[in-house]
Specification:
This protein is of the alpha/beta class and about 210 residues long. The chain contains 6 helices and 12 strands. The protein starts with a strand and ends in an 11-residue tail after the last helix. It binds zinc ion (2 copies).
C-alpha cells in the first residue's frame, strides 16, 4: 500500500490541509474550518490524529469536529494554548506536542520540530519517509509568514527556518499552510534576502 500526501483546501486562499497516510489510516495536519469537506476527502480511512501546526483560528477551527468522528486526539504545542482558547475556550487539545515528538501513520513517521516565531508554539512536521516537511505558517513559498501583516517575532522565525528547516535534505518538499509548495533548496537560496527583510510572505489574516 502506498503512503501518500493529499491536499485539501476548501477554497483558494484558505488553509491548506495536508492528509498523510494510505488507504487505511491518515493523520490530518491543520484541519482548517470545513470539517464536512475535509472528512469527505478523508473518506472511510481512519483518522489517527489531528495535528495543528499552530493555534491561529483559521487553522484549528474544525479540529474537534474532524477528530470526533474516529475519536482521534488533537495535538497542539502547549505554548499556543492561549491562542487556541480564543477559538476553543472550553476544551484543550489532547496531546501536548514537544520538539522531538513522533507520530506514526501507515509506514512513515512525522517528527515534531518546535519552530517558534510566527507563534510561540508553532511546529513543523518532518516526514523523512516521504521527503516532505509541513511548515504551517513558519515558512511559505514566498517566505516567512506574517500574521495580520506583522511579524510577532521575525528574528525567532528566521532562526527556526535557518537553524532547523534549512538543515533538512535539499530536495525535501516544503508543504506550507497556504499556497504554493517549494523545496528546502529553493528556500535556502532566498534565505539571505529574507534576513535582509525582503521577499516576505503575503499578508494573511489567519
Ligand atoms: Zn498563523
Ligand atoms: Zn493561515
Amino acid at each position: 500500500m502506498t503512503t501518500r500526501i493529499d491536499l485539501f483546501s476548501s477554497a483558494a486562499g484558505e488553509v491548506s490541509t495536508w492528509i498523510v497516510g494510505d488507504d487505511e489510516e491518515v493523520i490530518v495536519i491543520d484541519p482548517g474550518a470545513d470539517a464536512a469537506g475535509l472528512l469527505d476527502a478523508v473518506g472511510d480511512r481512519e483518522v489517527l490524529a489531528v495535528i495543528c501546526t499552530h493555534g491561529h483560528a483559521a487553522h484549528v477551527a474544525a479540529a474537534f469536529e474532524v477528530a470526533e468522528r474516529d475519536e482521534a486526539p488533537v495535538a497542539l504545542h502547549p505554548r499556543d494554548r492561549s491562542l487556541w482558547r480564543e477559538t476553543h475556550p472550553d476544551e484543550d487539545a489532547d496531546i501536548e506536542m514537544e520538539d522531538g515528538g513522533v507520530f506514526e501513520v501507515a509506514d512513515v513517521r512525522l517528527d515534531v520540530i518546535h519552530a517558534p516565531g510566527h507563534t510561540a508554539g508553532s511546529v513543523c512536521l518532518y516526514c523523512e519517509g516521504l521527503g516532505a516537511v509541513f511548515t504551517g505558517h513558519v515558512l511559505l513559498a514566498e517566505g516567512p509568514a506574517p500574521h495580520d501583516g506583522e511579524y510577532p517575532d521575525f528574528a525567532g522565525q528566521l532562526t527556526a527556518i535557518g537553524g532547523y528547516l534549512l538543515t533538512l535534505p535539499a530536495d525535501t518538499r516544503v508543504l506550507p499552510g497556504h499556497g504554493r509548495q517549494t523545496t528546502i533548496a529553493t528556500a535556502e537560496k532566498k534565505f539571505d534576502a529574507w534576513v535582509a527583510g525582503q521577499g516576505s510572505g503575503p499578508v494573511l489574516g489567519g
